[in-house]
Amino acid sequence: MEETTLVREQHRFNTVNLQRYLSGKTQGSMSYVSLNFSAGQSNPTFLIQTPSKSYVLRKKPPGILLPGAHKVDREYRVQKALFSAGFPVPQPLIHCTDASVIGTEFYLMEHVEGRIFRDLRLPGLSAPERAALYVAAVEVLARLHSLDLASLNLEGYGKGPGYCKRQVYTWTKQYRAAAHKDIPVMDNLSDWLLSNLPTNDNEVALVHGDFRVDNLIFHPTEARVVAVLDWELSTTGQPMADLAYFLMPNYWPSSLNLLSSMGNLITIYSRCRSIPSSLPQLNFYLALSIFKMAGIAQKSAHKNVVEAGLWNLFLPSVSGLSQLDYAHIAEETGRCVYAPDVFNCQAPDTGNMEVLHMFGTEEQKRRWLQPLLAGEIRSCFCMTEPDVASSDATNMECRLRRERDQYVVHGRKWWSSGAGNPKCKVAIVMCKSGSPENRHGQHSMILVPLDTPGVNVVRPLTVFGQDDAVHGGHFEIHFNNVRVPASNILLGEGRGFDIAQGRLGPGRLHHCMRAVGAAEWALELLCQRAAHRHAFGKKLYQHEVVAHWVAECRLAIDQTRLLTLHAAHALDTLGSRRARKQIAMIKVVAARMVCKVVDCAIQVYGGAGVSGDFPLAQMYAYARTLRIADGPDEVHLSSIAQLELRDQLRKAQAKL
């Protein structure tokens, strides 16, 4: 049976009212038990149990809904028509439009027993059994598309001809509304779909709209579909769209090995419908299906992450996590280049949000921190300059001066990470504002909206000659006498170094743990290659030099992880200032370690390692950059030596 959970707080309804309403309308006594189905949450779905019979209730979600969304009346109507025609759907029993009963409109249907597979690989079945179930699924899809609309009395159920064009427009709109960043390839795909609409877009049949294995109930023992579920997206339109959506997993990574005989399924479907099996425009429908999934994934992933409490995990006051807790999460996100963005934990926004949280005024928090925490905007941090050795911040030339109720910012910055993101709206700019005599009191940080007159985003920079725009790129920005309100200053003039110490400690920790995650990924790739490739009569891992690389990489990764976790604990218990030595140590060790591990992996892959066919070249660019970002190794080594000598002196004095 499909998995159920206790009814979620937000989905609870008045069961007494429901019992009263259903009294005399259903079989069984009025002793009800209601459970949430784990799936089916667009329209919340419940298992209603009585001592003698079980039912399924589908309702609209609570709250204000968009027009045309969550139309449970349409689901009830199409299921009723299909059940009357002998098509395998749960028998719809009652449709209630009276919202006073349980708070929203709902309908009740029979509960169908059988097998539901959430994993498309159908685990636990033999290859012939899996093939038989997929054949049964495609046969029932062909049966659906062969139904006569007129005989079903579904006049006006859909909009008729032009289905594909409507779908492209609808999902383009959905995707753009949900997108968290600009992805040019998705815009290109939308344009391609509009330019390659099928010539037979006027064909009309009843289509499911979400036909896949996990929306089917199979007979407990036979290769037969006993019910097709979830008709929320059903309409009238082009049946090939349903078929392509069902076949789409065949075009996922080959390691999933889902539909090994796609051609046979197309042949079976075509034979059942008595149509040619060539399907010349199948590629269009497959592209449309993938485009549709991209739109769904953008929206659902963000919503699910927020609801699961996985948003803004880096900020202790929001997540409730310590730096040590988050360090383990940062390692996992380091295994995927875009994982930090999924959780709103990407640099440089994390550091900027920490600055605003710790040092911002209430107005600064309202205007900038809140939308950053919500993921509505992005930010950049401007510190490094092209004309000076920026590892020594006292060399900084960008100037800040006060003129009445404004500050004027003038200077050049580069390596401003994230400035190319379309959502980037504000920069935190570090400037000189005081006299040189006060070495660590001459710098300030100020908020500069990027649409302020005088801000000129000059050019994107490359890393090893290649575009590195996965997170918004690195840019050169000129501030030409940019005027901003005096209220934009952070903490006050001359407090830039104080802010930097608070900002860079956690940020460096996050970088280092992500480096550990990246190194783990690189070592996995190395071992996979070494286990499958042969050279000079044996597999690569059987060569002693490669085996030693594997061992050395494991040693280096585990050493770095433990040192970084120790630094995270120090940051939690001692604070940023007193944990400076530990933070500096991991910054050196982690950057060197990940460079070494990725370099070994590249060597094992040979020419493929430096190509774009594998992620190692991009990983090496990131790893090598890490030895410079947030301060070069040499600066950190000097700091470590100074702090170690100080500690040794204190120990010696204590002994005296």
UniProtKB/TrEMBL annotation:
<comment type="function">
    <text>Acyl-CoA dehydrogenase, that exhibits maximal activity towards saturated C22-CoA. Probably participates in beta-oxydation and energy production but could also play a role in the metabolism of specific fatty acids to control fatty acids composition of cellular lipids in brain.</text>
</comment>
<keyword id="KW-0276">Fatty acid metabolism</keyword>
<keyword id="KW-0285">Flavoprotein</keyword>
<dbReference type="InterPro" id="IPR050741">
    <property type="entry name" value="Acyl-CoA_dehydrogenase"/>
</dbReference>
<comment type="similarity">
    <text>Belongs to the acyl-CoA dehydrogenase family.</text>
</comment>
<feature type="domain" description="Acyl-CoA dehydrogenase/oxidase N-terminal">
    <location>
        <begin position="299"/>
        <end position="376"/>
    </location>
</feature>
<dbReference type="InterPro" id="IPR009075">
    <property type="entry name" value="AcylCo_DH/oxidase_C"/>
</dbReference>
<dbReference type="GO" id="GO:0031966">
    <property type="term" value="C:mitochondrial membrane"/>
</dbReference>
<keyword id="KW-0274">FAD</keyword>
<dbReference type="InterPro" id="IPR009100">
    <property type="entry name" value="AcylCoA_DH/oxidase_NM_dom_sf"/>
</dbReference>
<keyword id="KW-0443">Lipid metabolism</keyword>
<feature type="domain" description="Acyl-CoA oxidase/dehydrogenase middle">
    <location>
        <begin position="380"/>
        <end position="482"/>
    </location>
</feature>
<comment type="pathway">
    <text>Lipid metabolism; fatty acid beta-oxidation.</text>
</comment>
<keyword id="KW-0576">Peroxisome</keyword>
<feature type="domain" description="Acyl-CoA dehydrogenase/oxidase C-terminal">
    <location>
        <begin position="494"/>
        <end position="642"/>
    </location>
</feature>
<dbReference type="GO" id="GO:0005777">
    <property type="term" value="C:peroxisome"/>
</dbReference>
<dbReference type="InterPro" id="IPR036250">
    <property type="entry name" value="AcylCo_DH-like_C"/>
</dbReference>
<dbReference type="Pfam" id="PF02770">
    <property type="entry name" value="Acyl-CoA_dh_M"/>
</dbReference>
<dbReference type="InterPro" id="IPR046373">
    <property type="entry name" value="Acyl-CoA_Oxase/DH_mid-dom_sf"/>
</dbReference>
<dbReference type="GO" id="GO:0003995">
    <property type="term" value="F:acyl-CoA dehydrogenase activity"/>
</dbReference>
<keyword id="KW-0560">Oxidoreductase</keyword>
<comment type="subunit">
    <text>Homodimer.</text>
</comment>
<keyword id="KW-0472">Membrane</keyword>
<protein>
    <recommendedName>
        <fullName>Acyl-CoA dehydrogenase family member 11</fullName>
    </recommendedName>
</protein>
<dbReference type="Pfam" id="PF00441">
    <property type="entry name" value="Acyl-CoA_dh_1"/>
</dbReference>
<dbReference type="Pfam" id="PF01636">
    <property type="entry name" value="APH"/>
</dbReference>
<dbReference type="InterPro" id="IPR013786">
    <property type="entry name" value="AcylCoA_DH/ox_N"/>
</dbReference>
<dbReference type="InterPro" id="IPR041726">
    <property type="entry name" value="ACAD10_11_N"/>
</dbReference>
<dbReference type="GO" id="GO:0033539">
    <property type="term" value="P:fatty acid beta-oxidation using acyl-CoA dehydrogenase"/>
</dbReference>
<dbReference type="InterPro" id="IPR006091">
    <property type="entry name" value="Acyl-CoA_Oxase/DH_mid-dom"/>
</dbReference>
<dbReference type="GO" id="GO:0050660">
    <property type="term" value="F:flavin adenine dinucleotide binding"/>
</dbReference>
<dbReference type="InterPro" id="IPR011009">
    <property type="entry name" value="Kinase-like_dom_sf"/>
</dbReference>
<dbReference type="InterPro" id="IPR002575">
    <property type="entry name" value="Aminoglycoside_PTrfase"/>
</dbReference>
<feature type="domain" description="Aminoglycoside phosphotransferase">
    <location>
        <begin position="37"/>
        <end position="253"/>
    </location>
</feature>
<dbReference type="Pfam" id="PF02771">
    <property type="entry name" value="Acyl-CoA_dh_N"/>
</dbReference>
